[in-house]
Amino acid sequence: MRKRHPVPGLLIPVSMETDMPAVQETIDRVRKIDVDQYKYGFETLIEMDVAPKGLNEDIIRLISTKKNEPQWMLDWRLKAFERWKTMESPDWARLDYPPIDFQDIHYYAAPKSMSGPASLDEVDPEILRTYEKLGIPLKEQEILAGVRKADEPSEFDDNSDTPPAEGSYSGRVAVDAVFDSVSVATTFKKELQKAGVIFMPISEAIREHPELVQKYLGSVVPISDNFFATMNSAVFTDGSFVYVPKGVRCPMELSTYFRINERNTGQFERTLIIADEGSYVSYLEGCTAPQRDENQLHAAVVELVALGDAEIKYSTVQNWYPGDKDGKGGIYNFVTKRGDCRGANSRISWTQVETGSAITWKYPSCILRGDNSRGEFYSIAVSNGRQQIDSGTKMIHLGKNTSSRIISKGISAGNSSNTYRGQVSAHRKASNARNFTQCDSLLIGEECGAHTVPYIESKNATAQFEHEATTSKISEDQLFYCMQRGIPEEEAVALIVNGFVKDVIQQLPMEFAVEAQKLIGISLEGSVG
Amino acid sequence: MLEIKNLHARVADEGTEILRGVNLTIEAGEVAAIMGPNGSGKSTLSYILAGREDYEVTEGDILYNGESVLEMDPAERAAAGLFLAFQYPLEIPGVATMTFLKTALNAQRKARGEAELTTPDFMRKVKASAEELKIAPDMLKRPLNVGFSGGEKKRAEILQMALLEPKLCIMDETDSGLDIDALKIVSDGVNALRSEERAFLVITHYQRLLDYIVPDTVHVLYKGRIIKTGDKNLALQLENEGYAQIVDEAA
Ligand SMILES: Nc1ncnc2c1ncn2[C@@H]1O[C@H](COP(=O)(O)OP(=O)(O)OP(=O)(O)O)[C@@H](O)[C@H]1O
Ligand SMILES: [Mg+2]
């Protein structure tokens, strides 16, 4: 293990960068697109544990040791690694990037110790406002802001253990923050425990709930699924684990905030969510990364399992650093997300707002295995500058009377390329399968490209699939009209775009809908004029 | 309030000259009507006043309260109090009329350094204006102009005008597409806005509108030039005789 000491110029404001759960910070980030401006009030140099570059058995053993993993987990990782060595990086997407040197990446980085501000008074008020908006109580804010660890006493402790009144849950969010390779804080643990909900870093779940992890890990995205998923299986470092027991409606929104900080570090998080029979959970992930000249790799795997009558709502607001206007830097985002509607009447819905990353390769999918199960995919993908997006979904209808709905809104500006790639298939037994797909593209300017690549496949004569696609442009006439009413040009673009994406925004948890709208506007700044 | 001086303008990308020396002055409190045959440049003049970039001013100037607006973009001109009711209002899919109105009003207020209106204050204001123009509240929830009938679009334009309280109101064929009752309602709305500080430039083909909104001056635009100016009787004369004689006189 090479010890890294504070690197000159690498200022990591621990309290700020590690712990922001929500979107406001990402908005501010985009706004302060200049590196020099990206300095929050607190700059704490921290010592990092960084593994040497390269992907090999030793690194995998090291990760497993660092995480105190049981033998079965290490074996699982090594099996994935053996498999990965035989695989090749996929090239079928409409993406153009130089070959990635997988041996030139750090696969593990962790802060040696977490030292944050002494009290909330020292935390940037802007960030506290965001916490407030999310309804996070002061006690929990302390954890997120790095003032104290979850098991340390709080100055806001009132020592009474009265549970909050019934119905007072709405608008509150439990947050897990993942900083490079480790999860740094999870809030609301106790309260979730009372409901029987397990929400913890997956590294902890592997130790504390091995039976659940062993049963479900890799059961939706198998070890050998695809190049990036297999790699993730070998080297994943952290991520979130959620288990909602039978009949439980998770009392609050769950949220994980991911951040890549360390230079040349890949992030490989793994998320596993299990909704047992008749349960419900809504989960939101947000992500950001600092601006770097070099590209950084993000290869996550998310697996969702919905048992009979269960429902999972999974929302993503992705704002990884997209690179500069000439295409320098930015995150390579290769993500495998899949949900398995395993039981009858189960339901999984994916909602994504994708504004960041230099390269996005991502197809959140649903396997509609249970009879009467339902899958949904709502997507807004915004590309600007030199960004390239190849994203969409797969709806695999296996059970009877399964239905799916796809609403995809692609917005391309600048010199970007934005491809929707979707597959809808009905297997032999999927009688009365239904799909509705609507796929709309909006172009801003002359230099960008939008493409729609639907694959439709039906082996059952009673299946009915509908596909609608439109491509439109923001017209000069519309812009002039808005401006004549006093709306400045960029705001006018944002307004028109928000009109275009309205159907999808409505699917987001309320707290994030407004932020997502703003984020879209900001991502498109500089796209006109 | 508005001084158009020897204004020449052409289509920016292909060079066709459309305005060829327009001179026109409108005082605060005045209602000026512009009439003229199809294609004479009336809408173009309104666009250029509002700052549309498709046209290039090659000569002359536009002074608003004594200052040239040529360097201002459309949003800045709007915030300064210039409003154009479009001959063909645009559709903005997915954006509720209410949202659009609020965005516009607050953008203007912000540009002028005024505080944004609170939602309840705003709602009260919109509801009052909508009621006067007999616009059903349900329509305000629909995306702006999407699926509105021709007459509804025109009414929505006047609603925006009433709400934004501009100083210079340019109305391009607001009467076309309105039924007889709607014409009366819209005209009443406009008349209610008439004041000492506010000027109107009303583009129309028909005397009918001018029966309701009685102009102080009437100007005839022909081939990019004002060829005749008079009082309200000029409009009556045109109604009876057409443009032929005036065009001949000017030639
Ligand atoms: N962008 C443009 N490109 C080419 N020609 C244009 C453009 N805009 C206007 N014109 C031409 O300029 C002339 C004046 O058009 P304008 O719309 O101003 O007429 P108008 O007086 O409003 O007519 P109407 O009474 O029919 O509304 C027309 O011949 C029109 O075709
Ligand atoms: Mg016209």
From TrEMBL, chain A:
It holds the Pfam family SufBD_N. NCBIfam families: PRK11814.1 (NF008773), sufB (TIGR01980). Residues 190-250 form the SUF system FeS cluster assembly SufBD N-terminal domain. It comes from the Bacteria. The lineage of its organism: Bacteria, Pseudomonadati, Pseudomonadota, Alphaproteobacteria, Hyphomicrobiales. Belongs to the iron-sulfur cluster assembly SufBD family. InterPro entries: Fe-S_cluster_assembly_SufBD, SUF_FeS_clus_asmbl_SufB, SUF_FeS_clus_asmbl_SufBD_core, SUF_FeS_clus_asmbl_SufBD_sf, SufBD_N. Residues 258-500 form the SUF system FeS cluster assembly SufBD core domain. It comes from Fulvimarina manganoxydans. GO terms for biological process: iron-sulfur cluster assembly. Residues 148-167 are annotated as: Disordered. This is Iron-regulated ABC transporter membrane component SufB.
From TrEMBL, chain B:
GO terms for molecular function: ATP binding; ATP hydrolysis activity. NCBIfam families: sufC (TIGR01978). It comes from Fulvimarina manganoxydans. This is Fe-S cluster assembly ATP-binding protein. Residues 2-248 form the ABC transporter domain. Belongs to the ABC transporter superfamily. Ycf16 family. Keywords: ATP-binding, Nucleotide-binding. The keyword ATP-binding applies. It comes from the Bacteria. The keyword ATP-binding applies. InterPro entries: AAA+_ATPase, ABC_transporter-like_ATP-bd, ABC_transporter-like_CS, FeS-cluster_ATPase_SufC, P-loop_NTPase.
